[in-house]
Design brief:
The structure holds three protein chains of three kinds.
Chain A lengths: L1 H28 L1 H6 L10 H8 L2 H27 L5 H31 L1
Chain B lengths: L13 H4 L6 H30 L4 H10 L3 H28 L17 H4 L1 H23 L1
Chain C lengths: L6 E9 L9 E9 L5 H12 L18 E4 L2 E4 L12 E5 L6 E3 L2 E2 L2 H9 L9 H5 L4 E2 L3 H5 L12 H5 L1 H5 L6 H11 L7 H8 L13 H5 L6 H16 L11 E2 L21
Parallel strand pairs in C: 1-5
Antiparallel strand pairs in C: 1-2, 3-4, 3-5, 6-7, 8-9
Helix pairs in contact in C: 2-7, 7-10
Classes of the chains: A mainly alpha, B mainly alpha, C alpha+beta.
């Protein structure tokens, strides 16, 4: 049953990413449209705006959560695509374990940076 | 009698993209896969940018931002935004339909056969319309 | 009935000789086709009059045996079920079903599909083996319970859905829409109690979760079976089981035959009076 649970987690993270990444897309790529409608926003890619977000706990939490969900969803999806082209069971096991390790390493590094910037 | 070995006849990964004159949902599937892999490719570079380059301070950050003002990168970012909109909305449709919600009950087949996905195609087309509208909104942001 | 002069249609048929070792190639034949002629009629004309070495499967010629699945103009059809006129074209390209090995010419090897079908245990499994081996009476099933899986019982094992599936195109170990739909047909049967055994087969690396709802199988199915719907309903069963929401339902029990016969209805009066 664990494969079913992994797939259900894939779908749950998909929904959560749709929400969190949606917020990220709106502030990053719809800022001109929002300014047109009267919201006061600064350029989100500027250093000042970025530091302002990096010093607020809620944004840091959002980014770390987004990273975790994204890594699981993307690596499970990529594993599915690779499983559909290989037939060797040994290669499938190697791929699964190396994705788990890559995912953990990238998450630790990706979460470390905003925490460092938050506390500085 | 000589044993005949049948000849392999798989379409391979090319069969994901084109295998005949199929209808909408098959192409929504391949586009879902393409947008997913495209976004993954982008996320690798984005993670490098927001970790390695960000932690080195303001000068490196602003130099990177200046480099990314190139119009080709702007087009790339727009494609990633559209890919996200498509993948998210199509993914929500897949989550609902993959568990059989809104697909209706099994009915005895009476000619001409209408399968469940075809019966719900108006909703799928409505989803495509929403995707197109959102893609235009994002395009507006790049133009303004 | 005047049908007009028959139209000359070119059949580009894929030829492959396993003893030759060369790659499959096309051979063209000209077939006089008239209204109402199916592609199978055209192939039989070729075999009878033009080239007797053309190999293809055919049996019932009425769309119920599932032998004559072929790729006609890049879409899988049953040859007996497809009119030449419906293509509105003077050329028909006929190839063997993709995603299945070719034995010769248009004959595809359906054994991988049958093997996958057997893996899924396509028979009623119950705990009370004594009753199944030596039946005393029937298992009761309501019409509503029958309708929940009746659509998926019409499978003729033609292999067209497997040819249409994009996952089957690249994944040789994928069970295929036919096996997965038949797995649901037996899990949804109220007489069956073997769901757990079948779940361990389909909840695998190359099982039901490699289906991505492309819907090509249902679109191409010549009997209107909708294997895509069956597979998604199977996924729903697996998901509710994994989340612990599944209520265990006992399978249908034995219904003993009625002991009382209905009272005899009196013979109706003769409507034509007179005579005996």
């Amino acid at each position: 049953m664990w494969r079913t649970r992994l797939h259900l987690l894939h779908m749950l993270t998909g929904i959560l990413i749709a929400v969190l990444l949606g917020i990220h897309m709106v502030i990053q790529h719809l800022d001109a449209v929002l300014r047109f409608f009267g919201a006061t926003t600064t350029d989100p890619t500027s250093w000042g705006s970025m530091i302002a977000r990096a010093s607020q706990g809620i944004w840091v939490a959002l980014y770390i959560a987004l990273l975790a969900f994204l890594l699981y969803h993307a690596l499970y999806g990529l594993r599915g695509v690779i499983l559909e082209v290989t037939t060797s069971v040994k290669l499938e096991r190697i791929i699964t374990w190396s994705f788990i390790i890559i995912g953990i390493i990238v998450f630790i590094w990706g979460a470390y940076v905003p925490v460092v910037l938050l506390s500085s | 009698m000589k044993q005949i070995r049948p000849r392999q006849n798989y379409l391979g990964a090319g069969g994901w993209v084109w295998a005949g004159n199929y209808k909408l949902e098959r192409y929504l599937y391949i586009l879902h896969r393409v947008t997913g892999l495209g976004m993954l490719f982008f996320v690798i570079f984005h993670l490098i940018e927001t970790t390695f380059f960000r932690i080195q301070g303001q000068d490196v950050w602003e130099a990177t931002m200046a480099l990314l003002q190139n119009p080709w990168f702007e087009v790339g970012i727009y494609l990633v935004a559209v890919a996200f909109v498509y993948h998210a909305l199509n993914g929500l449709r897949l989550i609902l339909q993959e568990f059989g919600f809104f697909l209706g009950k099994p009915t005895p087949p009476i000619y001409p056969y209408k399968d469940a996905l075809r019966k719900k195609r108006p909703w799928t087309l409505a989803m495509v319309a929403v995707i197109v509208i959102l893609a235009l909104v994002f395009l507006l942001n790049f133009i303004i | 009935m005047a049908e007009g002069s028959p139209k000359q249609v070119t059949f580009k048929v894929q030829r492959y000789d396993p003893e030759d070792g060369s790659a499959p190639h096309f051979q063209e034949f000209t077939v006089p086709s008239s209204r109402g002629m199916t592609v199978l009629d055209g192939l039989l004309y070729i075999k009878e009059n033009l080239d007797g070495t053309l190999a293809f499967r055919t049996s019932c010629r009425m769309g119920i045996c599932g032998s004559c699945g072929m790729l006609i103009n890049n879409y899988p059809h049953l040859a007996c079920h497809t009119q030449i006129e419906e293509f509105n074209s003077n050329t028909l390209t006929i190839k063997s079903l993709p995603n299945m090995p070719i034995i010769k010419d248009l004959v595809a090897d359906l054994t991988p599909m049958f093997d996958n079908h057997k893996l899924v245990k396509p028979y009623i499994i119950r705990q009370d083996t004594e009753e199944t081996e030596n039946p005393t009476a029937e298992f009761g099933q309501l019409p509503q319970e029958l309708n929940a899986f009746l659509q998926f019982t019409y499978c003729i094992k033609c292999g067209i859905c497997v040819s249409a599936c994009p996952t089957s195109a690249s994944d040789k170990l994928f069970l295929g829409p036919q096996a997965l739909a038949q797995c649901y047909r037996y899990c949804a049967d109220s007489r069956d109690d073997g769901q757990q055994e079948r779940f361990s087969v389909v909840d695998a690396d190359h099982g039901v979760w490699r289906c991505h709802l492309a819907g090509a199988c249902s679109e191409a199915c010549p009997k209107g079976l909708d294997p895509a719907l069956a597979i998604q309903l199977l996924k729903r069963r697996l998901a509710t089981q994994a989340l612990g929401l599944r209520k265990k339902q006992p399978p249908s029990s034995v219904v003993s035959p009625p002991t009382e016969t209905k009272p005899k209805v009196p013979f109706p009066e003769f409507t034509v009076k007179g005579g005996k």
